[in-house]
Amino acid sequence: MSNRFLLKGLNTGVSFFILAAFFVRKRWVSINFSAVRWVAKFIVVALTVAACASTQQKPITLDPGEKTLIMKVESFKFEPNVMKAYQGNILTIKLENIAGVEHNITIRSPQGTTVASMDIPAKGTVSLRLNLAEAGVYHFYCDKPLHSTFGMKGEIEVTSP
Ligand SMILES: [Cu+2]
Question: 64 pLDDT exceeds 60?
Answer without folding.
Answer: yes
